[in-house]
Specification:
Blueprint: E1 7-10, E2 45-50, H1 59-65, E3 66-72, H2 75-81, H3 92-98, E4 103-106, H4 113-121, E5 125-128, H5 137-148, E6 157-162, H6 169-181, E7 187-190, E8 194-199, E9 204-208, E10 214-221, E11 227-233, E12 242-244, E13 251-255, E14 260-265, E15 269-275
Parallel strand pairs: 1-9, 2-3, 2-6, 3-4, 4-5, 6-7
Antiparallel strand pairs: 7-8, 8-15, 9-14, 10-13, 10-15, 11-12, 11-14
The chain binds adenosine-5'-triphosphate (ATP) and the ligand Cc1ncc(C[n+]2csc(CCO)c2C)c(N)n1.
């Protein structure tokens, strides 16, 4: 007898500009939901992690609705120097005062001393994890958040990582490795143009696409291991019990054609979808 895989729902509720994106979730959700200052999106409960790569323009909007703000080492330099530039009509130091992180975590070899001093004086917790040189600063942040946030496995709580893509390729791969290292957490990697998350095997994933912000370009990539069988709906080039592997077929340059995309696979897959900048700015 066939056993039905549990459904894992993925909503872009953190974008916060679409009422439909804010509906309650069932088993598990995991697409984007960027907080809009005027929305009261009950399900948009997330932790914001700022890493050390160019900050997306929507970072300030996401900050507003995040329950916890964490910088990974040099991510604090980005917050200090880059975030005020998003508010060009305001004095940089005034803006800075509004965006004080709860914690800065890492081996602390990249944070500038004056930035560290500034946030320490503002009450930010600074955690030196330099004894561990086998995991990245992002990994250290996620491990800390996992150990200190009791309801992290709640279906509504996500970890949104800004600045995780579009920089150094080894860092990007390490950031993706963090998704694989914490498969039961809902971690979303973001840049200005791309959203990336892991679809763990063993579920039927229902991804609700917020087309005012996301798509149409997307991809399903068997990064960790080949897939012998993947089946999708809602895409221009659907897979029908199709095998995927690097060296043969992987699904890139695909297009979303429905508000709901479903994915069923025997392997963990990366789901990537474009973000179109004009709509959230
Ligand atoms: N160019 C980049 N592209 C993508 N992510 C990055 C990049 N640089 C840093 N990060 C992310 O920001 C986190 C903190 O970066 P930071 O520069 O403080 O780390 P680091 O370990 O000192 O890096 P490095 O390897 O340059 O010494 C990293 O763990 C990584 O997740
Ligand atoms: C096989 C192997 N390759 C690279 C590193 C280096 N490294 C990986 S994560 C990290 C911390 C970065 O903040 C460092 C230095 C290692 N330890 N083991």
């Amino acid at each position: 007898m066939m056993v039905e895989a549990p459904v894992m729902h993925h909503y872009s509720d953190f974008w916060g500009n679409s009422s439909s994106a804010c509906r309650g979730t069932a088993d598990r959700e995991a697409s984007g939901c960027f907080a809009h200052p005027h929305d009261d999106c009950a399900s948009s409960s997330y932790v914001l992690i700022i890493v050390n790569c160019r900050l997306p323009d929507f970072t300030a909007s996401l900050w507003t609705k995040a329950r916890l703000h964490v910088c990974a080492d040099g991510g604090a330099n980005r917050l200090y120097h880059e975030l005020p530039k998003l508010f060009q009509s305001e004095d940089a130091s005034t803006v800075r005062e509004r965006f004080i992180p709860d914690a800065i975590i890492g081996d602390l070899d990249s944070i500038d001393p004056d930035v560290r001093e500034f946030y320490t004086c503002k009450g930010t917790t600074v955690l030196d994890k330099s004894d561990d040189q086998d995991t990245t600063d992002l990994h250290k942040c996620v491990a800390f958040i996992e150990s200190s946030t009791p309801d992290l496995r709640s279906p509504n709580l996500k970890l949104i990582v800004v600045g995780a893509l579009g920089g150094r390729f080894d860092h990007e791969l390490a950031n993706i490795n963090v998704l694989y290292s914490f498969p039961s957490l809902r971690i979303v990697l973001l840049s200005d143009s791309t959203m990336l998350l892991l679809l763990p095997r063993g579920f039927r994933h229902e991804i609700k696409v917020n087309s005012s912000i996301e798509g149409p370009h997307c991809g399903l990539i068997p990064v960790g291991a080949p897939s012998e069988t993947t089946t999708t709906t809602g895409l221009k080039w659907n897979l029908d019990r199709t095998a995927m592997a690097f060296g043969s077929l992987i699904s890139t340059c695909n297009l979303v054609q429905s508000q709901i995309v479903t994915v069923c696979s025997d392997a963990d897959l990366l789901w990537t979808i474009t973000i179109h900048e004009a709509k959230y700015s």
